[in-house]
Amino acid sequence: MFNRNNIPNPFGSSGQQQPLPPRRPQQPPPTYQDQKTSRPAPRAMRLRPYQLKESAFVFGNICAVSPQDFAPNPDGSDLYLLINGFFVISARIKDGFPAGHISMSDPQRTWMQIALTDEIDVQFYDAFAQGASSYLGNLDIEVGFAGRKSTETPHDQDQLAAAFVKNFRNQIFAPGQQLLMDYQGIPLRMVVKTVELVDLSMKSESQAPSPDPRSRGILTQETLINYYKDIKTGINIKGSNRRPAANSVVRPDFKFENMGIGGLDTEFAAIFRRAFASRIFPPGLADKLGIQHVRGILLYGPPGTGKTLIARQIGKMLNAREPKVINGPEVLNKYVGQSEENIRKLFADAEKEYKEKGDESGLHIIIFDELDAVCKQRGSGAGGGTGVGDSVVNQLLSKLDGVDQLNNILLIGMTNRKDMIDEALLRSGRLEVHMEISLPDEHGRAQILKIHTTKMRENNVMGDDVNIQELAQLTRNFSGAEI
């Protein structure tokens, strides 16, 4: 299969440097055997990475190999190669390429964590080794500018997806994979977030989207590609009428069990349905339907029930910048007008981005703890008789639902005293979603106990006689903090 005779020196004909002698191929570990037939995987050969500058290979996500190392496919198609028993790439035989080497772009080597000085195991890969579910149904990709060359012009998501399929059709993709694509003269860097495999024979149902790097499939003409912008590069993705928003609020690899919230399943589901569901719609469709996104959520209830925990953990499920967290008393200042200025500063970044990008702006989340400290009923004398409390409320009202409305903000307020908050702040268009966080029931208390004893179980320091369900029954009327 492989011909190692007469390996030339790829670095020139210097008298000091001799070609590297071929090393004995090593047998890959048994975990990488063909699970379909329990047949051992083919023996790997040892190659060295090589940096090739040709754009056809760099922007085509293709590795170059020597005809002395690999025989071409009978149909002339690209080869599927397994790198170090884990990563799969597409390779193309290039005449004149030095034997004993394989070209890799910077994103490919970053993805595989390979240096130019390393030696790697390379072998053929059977794309259908995992059965009929070898094709991609959905592909979630994070996209951003690859270098200094950029543009403010919005990229149409549908056209970007069509170009992606045209450039990389029949290639294999897996979560975590990085690649470059030249789109209209602008180099773009893309990172695969999740993949969804489908069975084209229709013998089984499609699998759920997976962030597992071992889930890999072949890109086809029918694969649905969803783009999520890399907010660090400032790329602008134009919304699609058929696909979710490029700045979709929910992370594609989000899992509720990773949030560490117990006893609040019902409340969290209601918050998601009422506050975030509308932001999943394609922006073009939301505009046609006249949907107005929720701008504010109020979490209220007894102390220690998990209001602050929900707000703190919400950032883990959102595909947005880090939330701004502020305690109510921190807004107040002894200088005249400074309290109102602190409110304006909270919304400054959102206002600036909304003016530049409009509905394509990313979501800005502001978490306001102890909201009742600064948003008491106007006219109640809050603020020491100076009227500062009323001015702060007026400033917050104008930012949430004033003349210049922002559609890219979400204010999450938390309080133990809902009755003390000004009524104008609680109406629709402002903090319109009111969610009571009450004491957990028995099922919720069991969840809380399981979460807080996870490390004890993992480290084998919890006794076998500990009964979580019994403890949940004994802790009736306990708050989450008390448990």
Kindly report the average pLDDT value.
78
CATH architecture of the largest domain: 3-Layer(aba) Sandwich
Instruction: Tell me the strand order in the biggest sheet.
Output: 2-4-3-6-1-5
Q: Name the beta content range.
A: 15-25%
The separation of the N and C termini measures 65 Å
Q: Which stretches are low in confidence, meaning pLDDT under 50 for 5 or more residues running? A: 1-41
Count of runs of 4 or more consecutive helical residues = 12
CATH class of the largest domain: Alpha Beta
Number of separate strands: 19
Question: CATH fold name of the largest domain, please?
Answer: Rossmann fold
CATH superfamily of the largest domain: P-loop containing nucleotide triphosphate hydrolases
Structural class: alpha/beta
* Rg of Cα set: 28 Å
Shape label: globular
Total domain modules: 4
| Main beta sheet strand tally, sense and closure | 6 strands, mixed
Helix content: 10-25%
Can you walk through the features of this model?
The chain is an alpha/beta fold. It folds into four domains: 30-124, Barwin-like endoglucanases, CATH 2.40.40; 135-238, Vcp-like ATPase, Chain A, domain 2 (Roll); 256-436, P-loop containing nucleotide triphosphate hydrolases (Rossmann fold); 442-474, no CATH class. It has twelve helices and 19 strands. Helix 8 (338-357) runs parallel beside helix 9 (388-401) and helix 10 (442-452) packs across helix 12 (468-474).
Outline the secondary-structure elements:
Elements: E1 45-50, H1 55-58, E2 62-65, E3 79-83, E4 87-93, E5 101-103, H2 106-112, E6 120-124, E7 135-145, E8 155-156, H3 157-168, E9 172-173, E10 178-183, E11 186-198, E12 217-218, E13 224-229, E14 237-238, H4 265-276, H5 283-289, E15 296-300, H6 307-317, E16 324-327, H7 328-331, H8 338-357, E17 364-369, H9 388-401, E18 409-415, E19 433-436, H10 442-452, H11 454-458, H12 468-474
Parallel strand pairs: 1-5, 2-4, 7-13, 8-14, 15-18, 15-19, 16-17, 17-18
Antiparallel strand pairs: 1-6, 3-4, 3-6, 7-11, 9-12, 10-11
